[in-house]
What we know:
Elements: E1 6-10, H1 20-35, E2 38-44, E3 58-61, E4 63-65, E5 73-75, H2 80-87, E6 93-96, H3 101-112, E7 117-121, H4 125-132, H5 136-151, E8 155-158, H6 161-169, E9 177-178, H7 192-202, E10 210-214, H8 223-235, E11 241-245, H9 251-260, E12 267-269, H10 276-285, E13 288-291, H11 300-307, E14 312-315, E15 331-333, H12 337-347, H13 351-364, H14 369-389
Parallel strand pairs: 1-2, 1-6, 2-3, 6-7, 7-8, 8-9, 10-11, 10-13, 11-12, 13-14, 14-15
Antiparallel strand pairs: 4-5
Amino acid sequence: MERELRIAIGTDAFPPTTDGVCTVAKNYAEHLNKSHCKATVITPKNPYAEDDKYPYEIFRYKSWWIPSTAGYSIGWPFKESLSYDIINKGFDLLHSHCPLATSYYFRLVNDKKRIPVVLTYHTKYEYDFERVIPTKAAKDFAYSFLLNNINSADEVWVTSEGTGESLRKIGYTGDYIVMPNGCDMPKRSFSKEEISALKQELDVPENMPIFIYAGRMIWYKNIRLILQACKALKEKGEEFRLIMLGFGDNERQIKLLYKRLGLSNRIIWTNRLQDRELIQKYYAVSDLLIFPSVFDTNGLVVREAASCETPSLLIEGSCAAEGVENGVNGFLCKESAESITAKLSEIMHNGELIKEVGKGAQRDIYISWEDAVAKAYERYKIVIENFYKNGEDKKPYQYLQLKPIFKR
Length: 408
């Protein structure tokens, strides 16, 4: 009988923090434990954690807590005993979903005992680095730290081809494979009666178009373009509602902008939601997800919307738009408020087209977490086999010290 593998799922953030990587780590842990092997989440401590509600082990290591809207903590894995805590758990593979603190933790572990490491690159970190790091010297350090963590992995995964291009831009020259994320919402078709009931709850007239934005409330998701397009539609005399679902660092500024643009009576602000069934209902009641982000490397929300036959309007050439054919399984436009406005004006009253494209999105874009994790698990076995076949466990470890490898 094949021995059950033990996998570490490393992430710098885990619930109660909520973001895309948290969702990925949670679903990997859930579906690995349910169908394939024993998985343990490795993540920094969080004072508001409710780990008892998860049916698998969560190992939290030392952190510095930073009060913020997003609720992130900074992992601090430098105590030597923490490396042995991981080694003593007998993991067959360490899978990091964030190339920062937890990836460095795995480097500290590997300096003492070699264990194969997979790293999934989910996020375009250059956006955050350029936004929040004040000096060139500090930016260079951050990029070098990031690249050393990525280079230290035995195999690098990306969630889309566009993510691979982002890796190249920050200086990564190694190989990678595409391993797409899944969706934790089941495929579902809502009846006309269910949709009508939802519209009544939201106090939206039966035939009024409803759009939705879902994701972090932060400017680099191109939320400003959505609001400018909505203002243009209003000036054309169009009636509609826009559901704003999510939270983030720029919530207050976003609310101020839509009020200044005169959109207060067009916006339905949901506040922070974690009820997945309710979130899916918001997708279902919407005619279209507007997601003009060029930051996101995969766009989980696009698959979430597709789960209930809601199509997305995306920026042509963005990572979120990979696999989307305009008018077949989604809609595409340019990265401008004018282009978003034009596309919305073209399709918002064509209910039959939106319905057919929504069916195409569910058919072509949707992938379940069961299928995504099953594919990842099969790849784990290959990574482990190659690691020992190539004698990586016997070679001196090269990646503990930070090397200044980034030059701009």
